[in-house]
Amino acid sequence: MAGFPEDQYQRWRRARSVSAQLREQERPQPPPERLLQLIWLHQRLRRDDVHTTDGQPLVVLHPGFWNREAGPDFREAVIQIGEPPARVGDVEVDLWPGGWSQHQHQVNPAYRKVILHVVWESPGTASGALPTMAMREWIDAPLAQLEPWLGGLNAAELPPALRGACVDPLSRLAAGGFEELLRQAARVRLEQKAARFQARARHAGWEQALWEGLFGALGYKHNVWPLRRLAELLPRFRAGVDGRPLSARRWQVLLLGVAGLLPDPSARPFRGVDAFLIALWNEWWRERARFAEELIPRGLWRFHGIRPANHPARRLALAAHWLADPAWLDRLEGWLVEDIPDRRLPATLLERWQVAPHDYWSWHWTLRSGHLARPRPWLGQQRVTDLAMNVVLPWLWSRAGTGGDPALLGRAEHRYFAWPAAQDNAVLRLARQRLLAGRSLPRPRRAADQQGLLQIVRDFCDHADALCQSCPFPDLVNAAGLSGGQPGEVD
Ligand code: SF4
What we know:
Blueprint: H1 8-26, H2 33-42, E1 58-62, E2 65-66, E3 74-81, E4 87-94, H3 99-102, E5 114-119, E6 132-134, H4 143-151, H5 167-171, H6 177-204, H7 206-218, H8 224-232, H9 234-238, H10 248-259, H11 275-287, H12 312-324, H13 328-337, H14 345-353, H15 381-402, H16 406-418, H17 426-436, H18 447-459, H19 473-479
Parallel strand pairs: 4-5, 5-6
Antiparallel strand pairs: 1-3, 2-3, 3-4
Helix pairs in contact: 6-7, 6-15, 6-18, 7-8, 7-15, 10-11, 10-12, 13-14, 14-15, 15-16, 17-18
Bound molecules: iron/sulfur cluster.
């Protein structure tokens, strides 16, 4: 083209390379940790030459899955240090070797599976207890070149080389085959959850089984067990009131007090303690001795990495209001017999569960947080979907099945399969990348399809390593003879 020299683009590239080298030399600071994590994830290393700081050859068969929550940066990596065999474990990325002790990882049980410490650079070659790799020595291009390349990637995406061995077999399934596979997996999940409710109901009654399921789900993976334990104590809290309902405030005193989540207002480090907290504390103070044996040990709670909306104190306050409402269970059962359009299911359940605005909880996330600029609801639609798919619908389905009521059974099952999908969580995102190469689930998006995908992860991925070794799923999909031809038909 006139006016555009033939080697223009090459010159731009060379200019970029020179400026990159200059920037590299001028770089005053070590790179951000996130860049190191991206280099590790994409293995931008001279992979046939990498050694640990004590001189052992390091072969990375799989860098592991990036963990965006508390704990080591990468889970389930497969690496070989020195002689075979390769080992499966976690990888922690830090700027310096000292980060390990500085962050107290050596005493944190979440880090006990770490088999490699990846650092930017290491001052020496000393052999430590934990194998260490100093990345600076092994990157395959200057950092100034890697930085824009990695910055241009979607960091949330799994590199293509790390996708699961089932991606191709799944993508070859005939039209409708993949949808049916997800549906069947989702049904297995529904049956398993329902069976647990049925077993628990035999010993504790249906209502108690429901509360235990709800409390566990309100614990939102970090605090499932302490919340479940509190639900097991509900009959103990109710003892001595002769069937009279407890007020929402009374439930909060008992639940938060036994949970150990009521801060002592006199020990609070800041002024202006809310009168609501003082009132709860004063009431709990008189009761404490009575529940001394039931107190939940502080170490059982996990607060790191949870959103304020999911703080267990806030969830317990919500449960307290539900427990205090004598019509709550009737409303739930009434919801099942109402005719409701599928798209309105989450909103209508949320309406039945929403609690009136509260002077304290609408304006504070937790019992320790400050006053919010605007009021917050108790519950959002995302959490309602979790509670519906994991607790309420399996419970209603199980109860209807046990009671021999085919009409209610059919309604509960219909709602389970028709419920609109919620946003992907971290597990679902990884599953979509690993099994579907990031493609979407069938449309319209249904929560049951997400449940089906989670069930496949549980049944297959959780029993194989990151390399998919020994996973029979790809062969099973192939052998099912449902192939429909070219890859790419999943979406
Ligand atoms: S472990 Fe099995 S199911 Fe999971 S991604 Fe690999 S091949 Fe697929």
